[in-house]
Amino acid sequence: MSDPSTAVTLTVDGLDYAGWTSVEITASLECQARKFTIGIAWKWPGQQLARPVQPGARCELRIGGELVITGWVDAAPIQYNHDTITATISGRSLTGDLCDCAAINRPGQWKGQSAQAIVAAIAGEYGVAVKSEVEATASLADHTIEPGETAFHSIDRLLTLYQVFSTDNAEGQLVLAKAGSGGRASDSLEVGRNVLGAQAAMDFAKVFSEYRVIGQRAGTDQAFGVASNEVNASASDPRVTRRRVKVTQVSGQLSDTMAAGRASWERSTALGKALETTYQVQGWRQANGALWLPNTQVRVLDPLLGFDRDMIIAEVTYHLTESGTTCTLRVGPPQAYLHEPDAPKPAPKAPGKDAFGHLLPTDGAS
Question: Fewer beta carbons within 10 Å, N or C terminal of the chain?
Answer without folding.
Answer: N
